[in-house]
Every structure is written in structure tokens, then in C-alpha cells.
Amino acid sequence: MTDPASQPRRPGSKPVPPASPDAGASSDPLGAAPTVNSAREPPQTGPKISAETFSDEIRELIQAAGGEPENRHGRNVRDMIVTSLRMLRDGSDTGEVKLVNRATAELRHALTVFRPYHETPKISIYGSARTPEDHIDYRQAVDLAKDLAADGWMVITGAGDGIMRAGHGGAGRAASFGVSIRLPFETSANDLIIGDPKLVSFKYFFTRKLVFMWMSHAIALLPGGFGTMDEGFEALTLIQTGKAPMVPIVMVDAPGSGEDGFWARWDRFIRGSLLDNGWISPEDTSLYFITDSPAEAADHVRRFYANYHSQRFVGDRMVLRIREELSESQLDALNAEFPELVADGRIEQSGPLEGEIESLELPRLSWLSTKRANGRLRMLIDRINDAATG
């Protein structure tokens, strides 16, 4: 997933250069691997391939493509070329090479589609493709998307029917992205997004899911099946483990459903089966927010960015960019409430740290991080936002 030192832009910030995803992938990602018809090639003999093996040729190739071989960007491209060449020496079979090639191509294309919209905050909306248009969940998704789109947000969905179509319907075509997966039993894209240049089609689930998380500044979950559970648990896991930056996760129930709501019953399972058995920590339940109101869900998303802006690591220091400085008493209160986040020293307020190049005008909170207890980090962000909104 995304390197914590580099992440999607938060609302109001400048683009943050994304880290390159790990090129190493299983030959059977979620059952989507190509059929291998060729025999495995034996490892090739010859000199070990490194960045120096074909340094002159690679440098000339990068220059011919308009790049600068010696800067950071050019060196990363060089390493990608070297990784590809190493597959010739590794004895990789045709299916493995095709998978790596296709995955890289899918990610590259997706990045070109999203790149013009770096300055715009985006929410991914997940839910069942089977939800009919006359269902209350469909209406809830429409209202949530419409509310946030009116405030300048864009909506990302899986481009299918049901809740995905509802998200596009609420946001409108101009504010919608489609991130579709080719499946034999579902339509490739709904009628509201098909033909739009912001529709990206994927063969592999793992590249599609990476793009969802990479581009999202918030996540909304409506009731759904295995796919919705998969997407929701993946988001929770990546944020809980620090492999993705913190974003708000809202779960929207039917209005007035109370304790019988889909997500209310899900929450009882989480607390009764996971929390009570010690499989998660109490603070992990702060990573998600359940409501039966689309307006409240939208307000929860907006409030998350009331003062909090974005995060990154500089070495072992967690850095939170904020919009407004905290008072000394507010800073002391954070240190008193969240000591378990700090490996040594205390939470400090400062300007940009050495090596930072983004959003230099914003104040920072930073500390030597334990890199644990991300549920508590979410609670700290809530306190920062409380300081701004009162």
C-alpha cells in the first residue's frame, strides 16, 4: 500500500508525489492470474543485473523519453526498468511476466486519469451492486454523494449498478470517477459513467483496490455483500496498521433503523466477537462512524478536515499538518491524553521539518512515533479538529 511518507492529497493541499507500489505480486491475486500455458523458462546465465549493468543504455533511454536520469524521479524509473530486466534472469514464466506488465500498465493508466484532479477531495462509496433504485439505501447513497459534491468533493465508485450507480447519480457525471472490474456476471459500467474519460477498467482486484485507497480522502459504506465487506475491512486494516493514511470511514444505515440497522448489527458483531475476544483494541472502534443520516455522514467527513490537513513520516517522526496552530494549553492536553503514541519526548508544534517539500505554509505537530495504536491517532485528530471548531 502507500508509503506513509507519501500519500494522497488532503482537501486544500498541493499534490503529494505518490510512492511507487511494490512491483512484486503473487501470480494468483484473488484468483485473477492469467492462465499459464508456457513452460517456465530456466534462469538465464550471465552477469548479475543491477542499475549499473546497463547504466549507459538506461540513461539514454530515460533521456530519450524526456526524463532526467539523475534526479529522484529518473532513478525510480531506472529501478523499474532494472526490475523488469531481472525477470529475464529469474526464470519467470510468461504468465508471471504478463501479470507484472499488466498490473503496472493498469496503475500507470489510473494515475494519468486521476492526476488532473489532485486538488479535489474524493470519497469512495461502497455498497451492493444489487440494491434497486427504489430501495432506501439507494436514496441514502444519492443524498450523501449529492451533499459532498455540492461542497466540491468528487465521488469514486466501482462503476457498477446499485449503490455504485447511486453515488454517480448523486454527484453527477462531472464529479464522478468509475473504477470498474471486469467480471463475467456484472455489467462493466453503469449508464451514468460509461464512456466517461474518468472511467478506469481493471482486470485485477488488487490494482483496483490499491487505486481506491490511494485516491480516497474519505470512505463511505452502504449495506452490501462480500465485496463491500472486503473493501470495508481492507480500509480498516490498512489504516489500523498504518499502511494507509488516516481518512474518515462512515457507515450509513437506513433512517430510523436503530439497533436493527445493517451497520448497527455489524458493529455488535465487531464488539462482541472481535473486541471482547481481544482480537482488536478498544480504540480501533474509533476508526469508523455509524449513522443513519447522509447529512450527518457528510458533516463527519467535513469535520475530519476542519483543522487536520494531512500526515506523513519524516524518518521516525509522525508529522501532522494542521490548518491552525494550537495553543500551549491545547498542546499540553494532547501530550497528557496520548502519551502512548510517543516513543520519546513529546508532541511538538513547529513549521516544516527538514526534507518536507509540501504545504510549507502550514503549521505541524510532530513526535517520535511508536507507530502503533492508530485508533488513538484517529482520536488525537478528533481533538485537533475540536480545537478548531470548538
UniProtKB/TrEMBL annotation:
It catalyses: AMP + H2O = D-ribose 5-phosphate + adenine. One of its GO terms (molecular function) is AMP nucleosidase activity. InterPro entries: LOG_fam (IPR031100), LOG_family_nucleotidases (IPR052341). Residues 1-52 are annotated as: Disordered. Pfam families: Lysine_decarbox (PF03641). One of its GO terms (cellular component) is cytosol. Its EC number is 3.2.2.4. This is AMP nucleosidase. It comes from Phycisphaera mikurensis (strain NBRC 102666 / KCTC 22515 / FYK2301M01).
